Amino acid sequence: MDQQQFDSELQTYFLHIKHEIKQEHIEYLKKHPELNQILNDFTSQIILEKPDNVYQYAKEYFSFFNQEKDLKTCKPLVISGASGVGKGTLLQMLFKQYPQQFVFSVSYTTRAPRPGEVHGQHYYFVSKEEFQKEIEKKAFLEYSEVHGNYYGTHLAQVQKVMKQGQVCVIEIDVQGAEKISKSMPNQCNYIFINAPSVEELRKRLTGRGTETEEVIEKRMKNAQKEIEKAHQLGFYNELLNDDLQKTFKKLIDLLKTFYVDLKL
Ligand code: 5GP
């Protein structure tokens, strides 16, 4: 075999090997779609937090995997629904049944506490000035003005719960959920609790006796807008709360599909 022939055969051989390796890579990627998910989640998170030291950030981010927890296990759970729809009661039942798995994200708000509400447990009740300071510190994952008051989700709280391998439950309005869905794409699960009818919602709000007629009217108008918007957004899983016990069961069934590893 002369030199030219040898070079040509070698060339063919390398091309063959290259093709085989490429095929192997493609096969591997097809078998592991989670790789794309992990890289997308990482990129979204890094864009959200903009760390100065990217290497250090990556080291901490991927240390999640050392805890042998799938990232999907701790995707935050975003829950929305009009005032009076029963979200609060359903969540209380959830935390009672699964105190280790789900942790409530305590929002900041500028509204006044209702009777029985505790600072640091239901909300952090702060002044407009204090809320503004947190905005300037870029401490919020999202914040919105709801019914004339400010409400915000604290980013550090959500991250802490995720790092602990627990599900952070973020109870927020629809506009807040939309903001989260943009800043953390594909990184949360979304549930919208709906009432059987608008009349039923008014009855429940009036029955609560904690709000004035004017506030109830404001909340009713807001409720209709929220329901329409939630449908438009399309990322919510909707639950109709017509019967508390049955709805709670449906909620748990849905959560079982979201958080398979939690073994609920
Ligand atoms: P309420 O005053 O009845 O406690 O809450 C009024 C609305 O504000 C509810 O729809 C509730 O889900 C929403 N909300 C509570 N916390 C937050 C938050 O941190 N961010 C946003 N965007 N909405 C919130």
Quaternary structure state of the chains depicted: single chain
Radius of gyration: 24 Å
Element pattern in H and E: HHHEHEEEHEEHEHEHHEH
**How far apart are the first and last residues' alpha carbons, in Å?**
69 Å
Number of helices: 10
Q: Can you list the strand order of the major beta sheet?
A: 2-7-1-8-9
What is the fourth-level CATH superfamily of the largest domain? Answer: P-loop containing nucleotide triphosphate hydrolases
Structural class: alpha/beta
Extract low-pLDDT stretches: none
Shape by Cα distribution:
elongated
Per CATH, what is the topology of the largest domain? Rossmann fold
List bound small molecules: guanosine-5'-monophosphate
| Overall number of structural domains | 2
Second CATH tier, the architecture of the largest domain: 3-Layer(aba) Sandwich
Largest sheet: 5 strands, parallel
Average pLDDT taken over every residue: 89
Q: Note the beta-strand portion.
A: 15-25%
Query: Strand tally, please?
Result: 9
Would you state the CATH class of the largest domain? Alpha Beta
The helicity comes to 40-55%
3D structure, described in words:
There is one protein chain. With 264 residues, this protein is α/β, with parallel strands linked by helices. It has 2 domains: 3-66; 75-101 and 166-259, P-loop containing nucleotide triphosphate hydrolases (Rossmann fold), CATH 3.40.50.300. Helix content is 53%, strand content 16%. The protein has helices at 3-31, 34-49, 54-62, 87-97, 128-136, 155-163, 174-183, 198-208, 213-233, 244-258; strands spanning 77-81, 102-104, 107-109, 123-125, 140-146, 149-154, 167-171, 189-194, 237-240. The chain has a 5-stranded parallel beta sheet with strand order 2-7-1-8-9, sandwiched between helices. Strands 4-3-6-5 form a 4-stranded mixed beta sheet. Helix 4 (87-97) crosses helix 10 (244-258). The longest helix is centred in the N-terminal third of the chain and has 29 residues, at 3-31. The protein binds guanosine-5'-monophosphate. Guanosine-5'-monophosphate binds at residues 80, 83, 107, 111, 142, 144, 146, 151-153, 171-173, 176.
